[in-house]
């Protein structure tokens, strides 16, 4: 629920726009930091979840690293203040130019997803006279039990190396003089709320370490991200349970001496601090179905159209008797629908609706489809206030 102190701020701005509660972001960051630091875990924020400059700067100011999946994400992370030494670069399709750029910027490590990619990084590192640090992304064949479109670690997904490819990679690496293998990487999917899934991942990692790396213990283990958030009732849990998440790994991973565990959290860090604010343009329909037509569309927030994702919607202008509505946008697509048959207080033209939990994979996935403008962003506090709080100028 949007705190009443923000309501007038929301009315002042041209809709639709993303609203970021920067205090909630900071409280969330403090919670992740505390839970990770106490176990000596390293966090690389997954930039793909939200690459808004102010959000990135705030996250960087807490001392986290960054997990990037394109040259432009590396660039955005660097300009937001993330240290190159804390940047990891993943992705099945890094171009030669992106690899060249990231190497020139001296990022920490490449997460390699194919045997050919190892050869390309080795060649480019040779040209630059450098030795690139690499970790192998392994497909562990562990089901994330989440939406099929956001499952990444089962056989048949494009991500990571299969056991056969892993054998090939390990055979090849000793001949690649411009690379140094430092460890391995996993990421099995997103929006995972069942801790048993992470337990299974930890056990699978133990097996793979014993099978492939018993004689060559590696200093680096990255278990990816994936911790989910409460979309149906965000007010009940504005901050995900990071303690439970990290302790699942802590109690199940068997680590060789000196190995440090890294994470790449995205959604859990930023989802709940953002919402999409939209105005009701029209209310239409008949006795069978009523539609609330809003001025935000699937180009502003694509998750419902793409994954049937649920985002709680609140009418912050009305407290009248509830009625059932479909909440739809102006785009010429039937899937341009934010919610089917939900109860809202009786809604009229001009009401403001907030679509909650939209801080992750919201603004960053927006497009100009139908040649609409991209949504703007409004913040609860100025960046200066945020910086003062963490002691930066
Ligand atoms: C390789 C990798 N790391 C990290 C993430 C971040 O995941 P999440 O936002 O679920 O924490 C993703 C996205 O699923 C990813 O593909
Ligand atoms: N974009 C997706 C998650 C994909 C995560 C990136 N691998 C979502 O909105 O849920």
As for the number of domains, it is: 2
Radius of gyration: 22 Å
Q: Beta fraction of the residues?
A: 15-25%
Average per-residue pLDDT, rounded, comes to 93
Helices and strands: which structural class?
alpha/beta
Note the total helix count: 12
Q: Determine the fraction of residues in helical runs and give it as a percent range.
A: 25-40%
CATH class division of the largest domain = Alpha Beta
- Bound heterogens, unique: pyridoxal-5'-phosphate, lysine
The CATH architecture designation of the largest domain is Alpha-Beta Barrel
Termini separation comes to: 31 Å
Q: CATH homologous superfamily name of the largest domain?
A: Alanine racemase
The CATH topology of the largest domain, please?
Answer: TIM Barrel
SSE run:
HEHEHEHEHEHEHEHEHEHEEHEEEEEH
- Major sheet characteristics: 8 strands, mixed
Q: Please report the total strand number as a whole number.
A: 16
Family: Belongs to the Orn/Lys/Arg decarboxylase class-II family. LysA subfamily.
GO molecular function, one term: pyridoxal phosphate binding
Cofactor: pyridoxal 5'-phosphate
Function: Specifically catalyzes the decarboxylation of meso-diaminopimelate (meso-DAP) to L-lysine.
Description:
30% of the residues lie in helices and 21% in strands. Strands 1, 10, 11, 12, 13, 14, 15 and 16 form an eight-stranded mixed sheet that branches. An eight-stranded parallel barrel has the order 2-3-4-5-6-7-8-9. The longest helix has 18 residues, at 195-212. It has helices at 7-12, 22-37, 53-61, 71-80, 96-104, 115-128, 163-172, 195-212, 242-252, 267-270, 303-307, 383-389; strands spanning 17-20, 42-46, 65-68, 87-89, 109-112, 132-137, 179-185, 220-222, 260-263, 274-285, 290-294, 313-315, 322-328, 337-345, 352-355, 376-379. It folds into two domains: 22-269, Alpha-Beta Barrel (TIM Barrel), CATH 3.20.20.10; 272-379, Lyase, Ornithine Decarboxylase, Chain A, domain 1 (Beta Barrel), CATH 2.40.37.10. 44% of the residues are buried. It contains twelve helices and 16 strands. β4 (87-89), α5 (96-104) and β5 form a beta-alpha-beta unit. It is an alpha/beta fold and 393 residues long. The structure holds pyridoxal-5'-phosphate and lysine (LYS). Residues 48, 150, 190-191, 303, 307, 361 line the site of lysine.
């Amino acid at each position: 629920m949007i705190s009443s102190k923000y309501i007038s701020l929301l009315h002042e701005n041209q809709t639709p726009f993303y609203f970021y509660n920067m205090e909630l972001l900071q409280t969330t960051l403090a919670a992740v930091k505390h839970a990770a630091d106490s176990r000596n875990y390293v966090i690389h924020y997954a930039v793909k979840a939200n690459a808004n400059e102010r959000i990135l700067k705030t996250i960087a100011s807490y001392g986290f690293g960054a997990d990037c999946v394109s040259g432009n994400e590396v660039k955005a992370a660097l300009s937001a203040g993330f240290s190159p030494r804390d940047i990891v670069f993943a992705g099945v399709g890094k171009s030669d130019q992106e690899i060249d750029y990231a190497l020139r910027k001296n990022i920490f490590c490449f997460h390699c997803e194919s045997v050919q990619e190892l050869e390309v990084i080795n060649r480019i590192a040779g040209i630059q006279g450098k030795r690139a640090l690499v970790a192998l992304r392994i497909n562990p064949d562990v089901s994330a039990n989440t939406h099929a479109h956001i499952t990444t670690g089962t056989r048949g997904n494009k991500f990571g190396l299969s056991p056969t490819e892993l054998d090939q990679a390990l055979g090849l690496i000793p001949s690649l003089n411009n690379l140094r293998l430092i460890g391995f990487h996993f990421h099995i999917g997103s929006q995972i709320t069942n801790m048993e899934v992470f337990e299974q991942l930890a056990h699978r990692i133990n097996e793979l370490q014993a099978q492939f790396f018993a004689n060559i213990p590696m200093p680096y283990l990255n278990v990816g991200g994936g911790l989910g958030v409460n979309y149906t009732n965000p007010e009940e849990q504005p901050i995900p349970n990071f303690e439970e998440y990290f302790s699942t790994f802590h109690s199940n991973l068997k680590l060789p001496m000196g190995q440090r565990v890294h994470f790449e959290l995205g959604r859990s860090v930023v989802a709940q601090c953002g919402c999409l604010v939209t105005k009701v343009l029209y209310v239409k329909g008949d006795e069978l179905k009523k539609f609330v037509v809003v001025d935000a569309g699937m180009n502003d927030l694509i998750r419902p159209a793409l994954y049937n994702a649920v985002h709680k919607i609140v009418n912050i202008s009305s407290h009248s008797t509830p009625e059932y509505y479909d909440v739809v946008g102006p785009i010429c697509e039937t899937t341009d629908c934010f919610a089917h048959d939900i109860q809202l207080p009786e809604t009229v033209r001009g009401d403001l609706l907030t679509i909650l939990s939209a801080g992750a994979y919201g603004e960053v996935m927006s497009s100009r489809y139908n040649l609409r403008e991209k949504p703007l962003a409004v913040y609860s506090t100025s960046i200066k206030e945020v910086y003062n709080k963490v002691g930066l100028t």
